[in-house]
Specification:
about 350 residues, Quinone Oxidoreductase, Chain A, domain 1, 2 domains, seven-stranded mixed β-sheet, six-stranded parallel β-sheet, globular
Amino acid sequence: MKATYMYGAGDVRVIDVADATLQQPTDALVRVVRSCVCGSDLHPYHSMPADPGGTSMGHEFIGVVEEVGDQVATVRPGDFVIAPFAVSCGICVFCRAGLQTSCVRGGFWNDTALGTAGGQAEAVRVPLADGTLVAVPVDEQSDEALLASLLTLSDVYGTGWHAAVRGGVRDGSVVTVIGDGAVGLLAVLSARQLGAEQIVLMGRHEARTDLGIEFGATEVVAERGAEGIAEVRELTGGLGSEIVLEAVGHRPAYDQAVGVIRPGGVISRVGVPQYEDAPVGFGTLFGPNITLTGGPAPVRAYIEQLLPAVLDGTVQPGRVFDRTTGLDDTPQAYAAMDARDALKVAVRP
């Protein structure tokens, strides 16, 4: 079968690999219907050291169950399923608490220790299928817009929702979202769904921020640094934002968050941090009683809650996809997203 591998910074290839097969009685084999390239995939695209063996890629996919192990009870062949970006057992103390990203038996896709490969492929072996997969009452012939929205539930919609939930967004909240990528835009959508009254979107790509306005942003700030911080503070009555959702992961975005948060506020980070030295001392977080929260989104915990509005079309998070490509053209999808020529690219095997 075909699968996407990365061999170093900027070096993405679609190669032939051994067919995915069941290995454990708790496994399911899923034929991929749609996968995609994530903004976090661009981090290794920029910095991965050369690796002659390569690493499989992709952690977001939806598909059809082809085969299941003897101990799988919640899905069966023919089911259309969403695969969250974390593998989870569903029964450990963390899974029961809704923190599947910390599952004691699970892990992530492309994890050699867990034996998982990536979703940018024709098929995937899914360990711990009962805890991981969510069956959905649709089929692969469903409307393209619906498939796109279902695909966001594997990561970016649930991640944007997690940012807003961890940030404590509620009716009347004043929220700033940093980042106009897919996660940032869906954090805007999530904040609006949770009742935020003012949502300032910090982004500089007009096509993206226009979608952010449609999702619920009340203002857009394109400036960065001190100028951007000053504008957000002016828009929030000089006080700053009570909640900041940081969806980028680079140090300048964190500094923006610290600059626009008001005393007593909450910074919720879901952009994968590409830095280790973030200020948290008296002058930044401690003195003004600011809370720092966030982390990898346990999207499995949110799928059932978010799914009904996706199925009936009340919300359309799949609008973040602005391009679809075939699996063979996945390297070009990476290049397009890296060049900001595409917001998020869906991959059709």
